[in-house]
Amino acid sequence: MPHYLLTGAGFSANWGGWVASEAFEYLLGCPEIMADPQLRDLLWKYQAAAGLEDALAELQRGYSSGFAQQWTEKQLIQFQNAVGRMFDDMNKSFRGRGNLEFLRPEPFVHTTEERVDTMNRAVQRFLMRFKAIFTLNQDLLLEHLYLSKPDVRNAVRPELPGLQRTPDSHGRGESWADSTWCPVVNQPVVLHDAPHPYVKLHGSANWYAGDGSRVLIMGGSKQQAIAASSILSSYLNVFENELTTSDSRLMVIGYSFGDEHVNGVIDRAARRGLKMFVIDPRGARIAYAMNELRKGNRIGAGDTELERLMKVSLIGGSIRSLRAIFSDDETEYNKVMRFFSRP
Q1: Contact criterion met (CB below 8 Å) for 4 and 130
Q2: Which of 112, 147, 232, 250 is the most exposed place for a label (fewest CB within 10 A)?
């Protein structure tokens, strides 16, 4: 029975990464935004919805359509540079952490047996249990604190399928986060030969195409942008192929189920037997909470497609943080780990 992991921004938030609702405050202070009153107004326009991507989508549409020259190429680049600055600052903080582990209270570790138990509960060992890790994040948290670790490399031989380091990266050290990567041209992405693949479905802050452009999908029209990228379209196909494997299991951490193309893959896989476990502050109620018709106790609100998906596929969930689960919450930790032992 293959086990897979899908992470969103809420996963990186456990180590200090910003989620979409926090990006607004960061971007307001960026010099690229402060210098342009129109860009500041655009941010405020979508502030209530924590709409970093909505704001970027309007910029992209306004520039590409050229309608009344609503937005200029310079403004689009300014906004993208501000987002890049945000990723850079997050990635610097990840580099300074040293590892993924959360400190456990000292009283927990007294005997040799307890010390072994503490090691077995490490986040690093938890991640090693998945056949593949898929992510919608573009930060470099796992490149810094997981994929580049010698013991991880020796144990599971992680891989970034379909990518190669750019020649100028080899002198920067062993960390994958300190390198730049580019897609391998005309090479199909397959996972069956990769012992422990890490698949970034929306690209990454340190990926660049042959023309020097970033391979990073944000804003509107994600499906069209993915279709135009050979590696990202291959990744989406691989994601679906893996999840439709017989008796597959998917753990979802920190993804808010806001991307239709990702939800579509999960839905089709669920129809073929995929079972899912969700770690999110809303837990199993995540789809219910997202149903606008249920707000205000409206009468006659029907199930959304996402609610139906949850009812068919969900085999458990947790509303607690990874910090709690992997530090001192024995009960919740045991519940989460049942994911790997269910028949």
Answers
A1: yes
A2: 112
Other CB atoms within a 10 A radius of the CB of residue 160 amount to: 19
Do both 131 and 278 map to the same domain?
A: yes
Strand order in the sheet with 203-208: 163-165, 181-183, 203-208, 214-216
Domain match, 52 and 135 both? no
Task: Report d(CA 335, CA 49) in Å as an integer.
Answer: 33
125 with 221, same domain: the answer is yes
Distance CA 146, CA 125 (A): 10
pLDDT per position as a tens digit, 121-151: 789 999 999 999 999 999 999 999 999 899 9
The number of folded domains in the chain is 2
Distance CA(71)–CA(15), nearest Å, equals: 35
User: Does one domain contain both 46 and 150?
Assistant: no
Looking at the fold, whether 11 and 35 belong to one and the same domain comes out as no
Question: Do residue 13 and residue 27 come from a single domain?
Answer: no
**Domain hosting residue 154, numbered range:** 3-19+108-340
CA angle 160–54–208, rounded 5-degree value: 30
Reduced 3-state DSSP string for 258-287: CCHHHHHHHHHHHCCCCEEEEECCCHHHHH
Given a cut of 60, whether residue 67 has pLDDT beyond it is no
- pTM, whole model, 2 decimals? 0.89
pLDDT digits 0-9 by tens, 43-64? 999 887 657 888 888 888 777 6
Give the bridge partners for 201, in sequence order.
none
